Amino acid sequence: MSTASQEDLAKLILRLTIGILILLHGIAKMINGVGPIEGMMVARGLPAFFAWAAYIGEVIAPLLLIFGLYTRLGALLIAVNMVVAIALAHSGQLMQLGGNGGWRLELQGLFLFGSIAVALLGAGRFSIGGRGGSWN
């Protein structure tokens, strides 16, 4: 396998991993609603309808990553979603370690920095968008 093919395969694995794992959170929100997020928004003086943006960051954006269509945009949307999630729900845990010694926000950090990596790398050849276009 050529180096270029290995890089494209690595991009596919990263896109699918971040996309599928975030999408599962979005599916849970579709089933259970965004009520808890609305409460966090209101508690911070923000309009409750901002909570609906979670569907963009956790359903639409992951689908863009999975299919490799407007991948960089999808990855940036996930990164923004994760910054908001960390600020709203996890800011008190930023400097904490978990029970096993790892960072308390390992999962959120993986989603945030993994999506930034996808935004920088692009979709690769194994995608609907292929190599063309700056947003793939």
UniProtKB/TrEMBL annotation:
InterPro entries recorded: DoxX, DoxX-like_oxidoreductase
Keyword Magnesium applies: no
Chief localisation class: membrane
Keyword annotations from UniProtKB, A to Z: Cell membrane, Membrane, Transmembrane, Transmembrane helix
UniProt keyword annotation of Cell membrane present: yes
Locations listed in the record: Cell membrane
Residue ranges crossing the lipid bilayer per the database entry: 12-28, 48-66, 73-90, 110-128
Membrane topology designation: Multi-pass membrane protein
Pfam families named in the record: DoxX
GO CC aspect terms: plasma membrane
Family: Belongs to the DoxX family.
Protein name per Swiss-Prot or TrEMBL: GntR family transcriptional regulator
Record organism: Pollutimonas subterranea
